[in-house]
Amino acid sequence: MGSCCGTSDNGNIEDGINKDKAADREIKKLLLLGAGSSGKSTFFKQLKVIHGNGFTNKDRRDYAAQIENQIISQMQKLIIRGRELIEDYGQDKYGNLEIKSSEGLDSASYIELLGTSIDFNKEVANHIKTLWNDPGIQNTW
Q1: In which element (H, E) is residue 18 found?
Q2: pTM assigned to the model
Q3: How far apart are CA 111 and CA 128, in angstroms?
Q4: Residue in 114, 116, 40, 110 with CA at minimum distance from that of residue 130
Q5: For 52, 64, 81, 136, which has the most beta carbons within 10 A of its beta carbon?
């Protein structure tokens, strides 16, 4: 009577296992431990950029969207914080944080109403530029 598994099958399996072991020995492994937001993912992204093929087009689009959303979010915070300081501590102390030009006020209203998932277009960019050039925003920053 023959066995259920022939010796040629066992040899093929053993060869496959040996090849996998040899390939596994060539791979360098590194375990990074650290608290959240300590830079583990950033470290690997930098390795990918430096030693790999760089960012994919999808990565670039994703990062651009994150940066655009941060620009809007931070400008909204500058607008709000300047206004809060004036309201809380008075015009005498923080009057230099006020947005005074009509263009700046229009841009502030526009930016404050934006959500986080918008298309960063020329109109948004122009409002951001107008606000960034405003002395009240500069003083708040």
Answers
A1: helix 7-26
A2: 0.65
A3: 8
A4: 110
A5: 136
